[in-house]
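Why run this: before we spend reagent on co-expression, it is cheaper to look at a predicted model of the complex and decide which construct boundaries make sense. The entries below are exactly what would go into the expression plan.
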Amino acid sequence: MQLDQLFSALSDTTRRAVLARLCKGPAAVSELAQDFDMALPSFTQHLRVLEDSGLVMSEKNGRVRTYQLAPQALKEAELWLSRQRSDWESRFNQLDEYLNKMKENRDV
Amino acid sequence: MQLDQLFSALSDTTRRAVLARLCKGPAAVSELAQDFDMALPSFTQHLRVLEDSGLVMSEKNGRVRTYQLAPQALKEAELWLSRQRSDWESRFNQLDEYLNKMKENRDV
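The model came back. Tokens follow.
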């Protein structure tokens, strides 16, 4: 399922740092890699996981591969979380209403 | 790092379904388990991962263990995502302003 891959891709510090960088604009592999103290094959493996999850896209011009954010996937992960929160909040509002009603009845 | 564990816990369909259920209110293990066609040891392993990540809490009364959402952790995951989106959006607004300025200069 797509959300499995999405959240799994987000569960790594390096990959989240790459995403945070790409949120500020596209970048070539070499530019991305210089921020990380990591062998290039390991680093490109992280980029592959991000691309497979749909969080980033890449294109190659000559010998340079450039990555950019695919914002829709980030949005979907956020949407799932905010939907759960809204369920949680509406439950709390219901509890709150209930307690207020109890209080009103007691005060009458 | 805590966000690693958080997103990793969210990367499984069963665990997300349990969270979605707990967003509607606390539930005992037996109540949670009945929605899933899964052996109890595998299911309780998922509950353990959720609890280790900080997304849920549990308490035991007699023989019944009850789980509830720990909303702060859900909020933290959402916050990370919304921060990235806001970087992405402000970059887009800057591009937009730049293009509008280009257009104005051309129209003068």
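Helices of chain A lie at 2-9, 13-22, 29-33, 40-53, 71-107. Strands of chain A lie at 27-28, 56-61, 64-69. Bring this page to Monday's planning discussion.
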